[in-house]
């Protein structure tokens, strides 16, 4: 059996006084993963993270790093192997940036020359000028300070980095550039990151695996895509937020979810007369042609019937077999453009065995675009009206 | 002498007793400094300890506060009962009075260190001793220095009354003046250097305090 890089088994943390902070938490983390622990305050996410470098001691359960139980390791040595970035940055105000970056190397008694080289390397990594090495933290802006905070956690070649809401105190623009930075560093250097946040956007954009926590328990562990597509329960849904779910819909919705299932269809052996009657009853101007097993064969529209009514008798004689169709499990995101570009009024949807399962109409696409732009709630009606008219005018 | 005004008398006194005044100045300075130094050696570790054990903090500071409220003359006399006349009694008194500002400032300085720095330090793998040496003490040094500065000024004042138990120092000159008829000049000859010593030491330590302040 393969040993996980970091595995947590049945962790519990109960504070004196009986408050349960973490309740039966189990998780395996592979090397190179970017794991976001997300939840409301008091959900136990920080507590869980702090147990990994033994800043807190679990009440029960085991944590294994590279297969070794960390409770058997010297906490000081363990922490020197794990990068640690906190919300308040925590740069030492009485040390220069150089000294700050090389705190852990110094604790590990690296030779001075190696530390100097590393400091230079590190400051280049976060795109700050080398002159900064001799400045003090108070001479740097908050964003620059946290950049140093991040490389300080990398300076001694730590493989695992713990980050506790590191960007919580920064303005949105600075936060975004730091998110790009850590994501880039993480993938480039192959680090494993455990990142605590309460910001869903942050988690969705950074994580390869999101762990949603509430009240000390795991609600869901999944990739960002998966969590948007299938929130495990109402709590996760609320945490993601209605707006985000709607915005994410075009990118993660499958055709199957938006298609109409009552597509008007007919078999090839039917007479044109019958086809015309079906059209009339269903009030449509075209029909999809399927065989008895519901396999999509082609389509027929009112012009074909009108033109061939005298000469042909069965639907099979006049149908077009060059029908454009989409798979029901393909993403709307990928298909919507193709549908619109080709100018079809509607497109049949088939399953993996080429059986007709539904139809996507232009009206359904309008709904998706509309939802993505305005949301499906009570946002200004006049806007909604004008967009519909605009759509109709095309 | 009567034909000279006060300042002329003072200058005359210094001219004739210069080496004596200097010797007493020296003695006064050393008594004060020894007392404060011993208090620092004892008080700073106590301050560090109680900063980490907040339950003890109230008790220890309370005791130091009680010591501070005893009038210095009374304290001198009480200690004299045990240690007899002489320099040692004054040094012990200075030591006791210096404890409060030193312990209190050490405690405050240590507590005022940003907890997130301690969190960061521990999280990076510093041992308790390293945390103390690399983070806590450097960051509280200026507050500790302020305590020492207070203690030194206090000590110079207390040493001045040490003359009553025969310890010598500039207090000797002041008492000589109060005992003499028309001794104003002699009083000044003792009092001025005492004040000067306090002012200079205060200024020097104030400068050091600023120097070690990491936030400046």
SSE arrangement:
The complex is a heterodimer of chains A (394) and B (216).
Chain A: E1 6-14, E2 20-29, E3 34-38, H1 45-52, E4 60-65, E5 68-69, H2 75-80, E6 82-86, H3 97-101, H4 103-107, H5 112-125, H6 142-152, E7 160-164, H7 172-189, E8 192-197, H8 200-206, E9 209-214, E10 217-222, H9 224-229, H10 234-240, H11 242-252, H12 255-258, E11 265-266, H13 272-282, E12 286-290, E13 296-301, H14 302-308, H15 315-318, E14 326-327, H16 332-342, E15 346-350, E16 356-361, H17 362-374, H18 381-393
Parallel strand pairs in A: 3-8, 3-9, 6-7, 7-8, 11-12, 14-15
Antiparallel strand pairs in A: 1-2, 1-4, 4-5, 9-10, 12-13, 15-16
Chain B: H1 6-52, H2 54-69, H3 72-83, H4 87-111, H5 115-123, H6 128-161, H7 170-179, H8 184-211
Tell me what you see in this structure:
The complex is a heterodimer of chains A (394) and B (216). The longest helix of chain A has 18 residues, at 172-189. Chain A has helices at 45-52, 75-80, 97-101, 103-107, 112-125, 142-152, 172-189, 200-206, 224-229, 234-240, 242-252, 255-258, 272-282, 302-308, 315-318, 332-342, 362-374, 381-393, and strands spanning 6-14, 20-29, 34-38, 60-65, 68-69, 82-86, 160-164, 192-197, 209-214, 217-222, 265-266, 286-290, 296-301, 326-327, 346-350, 356-361. In chain A, strand 12 (286-290) and strand 13 form a beta hairpin. Chain A is α/β, with parallel strands linked by helices and 394 residues long. With 216 residues, chain B is an all-alpha fold. Chain B has one domain: Orthogonal Bundle (MetI-like fold). Chain B starts with 5 loop residues before the first helix and ends in a 5-residue tail after the last helix. The chains are: A alpha/beta (394), B mainly alpha (216). The A-B interface holds A 53, 55, 76-81, 84, 86-94, 103-104, 107, 138, 152, 162 and B 114, 116-117, 119-127, 130, 134-135, 138-139, 214-215.
**CATH class term of chain B:** Mainly Alpha
Q: What is the CA-CA span between the terminal residues of chain B? A: 54 Å
Task: Report the biggest beta sheet of chain B as strand number plus sense, adding barrel if it closes.
Answer: none
Strand content of chain A: 15-25%
Subcellular location (chain B): Cell membrane; Membrane
Keywords (chain B): Membrane, Transmembrane, Transmembrane helix, Transport
Pfam family, one (chain B): BPD_transp_1
Domain ABC transmembrane type-1 (chain B): 25-205
